[in-house]
Amino acid sequence: MTYEVDHVRPRPARRGRRAAWIVVTAVAVVVLGLVVASVRYLNTLSNTYESNAQVFVESFPEEQVRPVKAEHDESINILLLGSDDNGGSGTTEDLPRVPQGGRSDSMMLIHVPSDRESMQVMSIPRDLWVEVPGHGSHKINAALSLGGIPLTVSTIESLFQVRVDHVAAVDMLGFIGVVDALGGVTVNSGYDHSFTTEQGFTFHPGWQEMTSEEALSFVRHRASFPDGDLQRVRNQQAFLRAVLYETLTPSNLRNPAKVQEMVETFSPHLTVDETLDAGAAAALRWNLRDTSESVDMLTVPTGGSGYSEDGQWIFYPDEQAMDDITEALAESTLDEYANSL
């Protein structure tokens, strides 16, 4: 069983020429918030977002098959997908395609509890073996190729019995622009050994400054790790923590030129559901205004690995943990669950 929980931890960002990606999915929420970071520039930034961001024509399954929120439940749940036109973790892998033509290589569920005092970013291993509604058992990322965004949403909703309020997907080029505007990041690698990627970059435990090419290699690599994709998820989360902190610093949020640059470079590579317009983004940013120091990150636990009947290497779900997560989401206490691990 594998669990990963951590908090956003402050660390100064450093210079960098380009960006890395994959955790781009969760950064989408932050960038959407930047659209309304300054009231003075609201109209300009909102117009930039509205004119550039693409919209999923079909975002959600039929209403009658979706979970219904309890009357007291005011939480917000956002499904975030990462895509990579260059193949994510390798061009030979058979990954489903997202609508923009990239490949789905990262899936996260962001949960904002009803009290708005924290935010949880839950990574979902792409090789998790689950029931895809109407299609039997598959890896969870197969839902995208079998039925697009609506079936992906339906799979997540049936897995955790939770309502998905918004969907966002972003490709690598968009994230390049965001990190470029930030000036790079310094990432804390939590892996307890040094490792060298296929591109020839060597990473050591602890904090280290990364160029965009190094960071991209860092979040893609998995060949060196005994648990493969699970350690790659941890690396993605470490990178995300660095980007989240730097993006949410007051100096960045109060810098109109930097905010405008982030929105201009990111929004053309962002695809959202019809309800996530500039107004919804503004409300989201307002709801998250006090959560920058209360971001919990966790990975959906696994119950071991093996091979499916058709020969695919998979992660089995931890059924007890899945029940606990379902209950925590229903009670809007995923923060307590994350911190109890």
From TrEMBL:
Keywords carried by this UniProt record: Membrane, Transmembrane, Transmembrane helix
Pfam families, sorted: LytR_cpsA_psr
The keyword Transmembrane helix belongs to this UniProt entry's keyword annotation: yes
Signal sequence segment: none
Annotated Cell envelope-related transcriptional attenuator domain residues: 103-246
Gene3D superfamilies: LCP protein
Listed transmembrane segments: 20-42
Region (Disordered): 81-100
PANTHER family: POLYISOPRENYL-TEICHOIC ACID--PEPTIDOGLYCAN TEICHOIC ACID TRANSFERASE TAGU
Protein name as it appears in the record: LytR family transcriptional attenuator
Taxonomic lineage: Bacteria, Bacillati, Actinomycetota, Actinomycetes, Micrococcales
